[in-house]
Each structure stands twice: as C-alpha cells, then as structure tokens.
C-alpha cells in the first residue's frame, strides 16, 4: 500500500509475539520496520537509523512508553508517534494528546485501525516535508526543525550547533556573499573566530552534505547559491 514511498517505522513493543505479528502486517503494507522490545534500544535506533514514524506501547517491561515520547519531543516535534495500550487510562490519554501523538490505539490492535493510523502518519510526514524542508542541490535537503541534512538514500545527518547556525545564516542570505566578520558575529556570537576554525566548520558541513554546498569567495566570505 505504501510501496511507492520509502518510509521506515520504529516499533517498540515488549511482547515479542505481538510485535512479530504486527510487524508482519506493517511490512505487508509496504513500510520498513525496525523492531525492539525496549526504549533504550529504541533511542539508539532512532539516533542511528532512518526513522520516519514510531509505534510504541505505553506499558513496556519495567518502562513507561510515555517517558520515551517525552524525551523524543524535547528534540523532535514532528515525527509521527502512534501509541498502543491494553488499558483504559484517562490520564495517559491526556498525556498522549499533549505530546502530539498521531493516534492512541487499544490492544489488541485491529488491522483497519492500525492501517488508518499509518495512513495519517504518512500524510503527516509528507506534509511536514513539503512545508519545512529546504531543498538543496543534488537531491539533498535541510530540515530546520531537527537540524539534519537529509541524504538521497534516506539518511539523516545531524548538524552541530555551529554548523546549523552557519548553514541557516547562509541560506537566509543565499546568493549573497556573507563576510567573515558577519559569520563571526552570528555563529561565534561572543567568542572569537579563527579562519582555521571557520574552514573546519565549512568542511564539516560539506562532508555531511555535498562538496559544493558552500562556496568560498577568497578573502571576503562564503555564500550559498541555490
């Protein structure tokens, strides 16, 4: 059903039999699935792998799935999250709503309900991408919400604070030459900038994206041409 799209779902569920059953259904409908039974591994997968959407149970073994989502929302406000639970708890429901969840599903999961939630999640992903991403060259894009360079193969590469300060500053001044002094003021703020440090910063952005993303105007500054 989603075979024309390259989306990956992270599924965190401590019940291995249930996780296997639902993962099979999700894969049959065209989504890739990363599986784990705990939030620690889930955090590691989210940090190191391409993850577009999350399906998580609230009652993990010795864990509360809401804690994982709270931690996630401190850095990522857009990734769709579908929560599942075997219990009816009004307080948890309110917490889930406040954490901007896509759907709150009761177990055992019905295929139609799960599929509807996945549809909404995919639609949310597409809407967010079209409205927030900055399209770069060579098929790359920049996500200003999560501060990542999005690669053509689906990888999301996190930028450091100085890297995204510089990239966003140059994007706001695209096609204009931004002097070294202006970069020092905005990116280094109250600190002192050396030319070696600036060149290292630019190399880091190029390495995480593509070589020609930032152009050097010798003796003057840098610019981005889009």
* CATH architecture descriptor of the largest domain: 3-Layer(aba) Sandwich
The major pleated sheet works out as: 5 strands, parallel
Shape: elongated
Helix content: 40-55%
Task: Provide the descriptors you would attach to this structure in a database record.
single chain; alpha/beta; Rossmann fold; Arc Repressor Mutant, subunit A; five-stranded parallel sheet; four-stranded antiparallel sheet; 8 helices
Describe the fold and architecture:
- With 226 residues, the protein is an alpha/beta fold.
- It folds into 2 domains: 8-132, Rossmann fold (3-Layer(aba) Sandwich); 141-223, Arc Repressor Mutant, subunit A (Orthogonal Bundle).
- It is built from 8 helices and 14 strands.
- It has helices at 16-28, 39-48, 65-73, 90-98, 111-132, 161-172, 180-188, 195-208; strands at residues 8-12, 32-36, 53-57, 59-60, 63-64, 81-85, 103-106, 134-135, 141-143, 148-150, 156-158, 178-179, 215-217, 221-223.
- The strands form 4 sheets. It has a 5-stranded parallel sheet, sandwiched between helices. Strands 8-9-10-11 form a 4-stranded antiparallel sheet, with no helix packed on it.
- Helix 1 (16-28) links the parallel strand 1 (8-12) and strand 2 (32-36).
- Helix 6 (161-172) crosses helix 7 (180-188) and helix 6 (161-172) packs across helix 8.
- The protein is elongated.
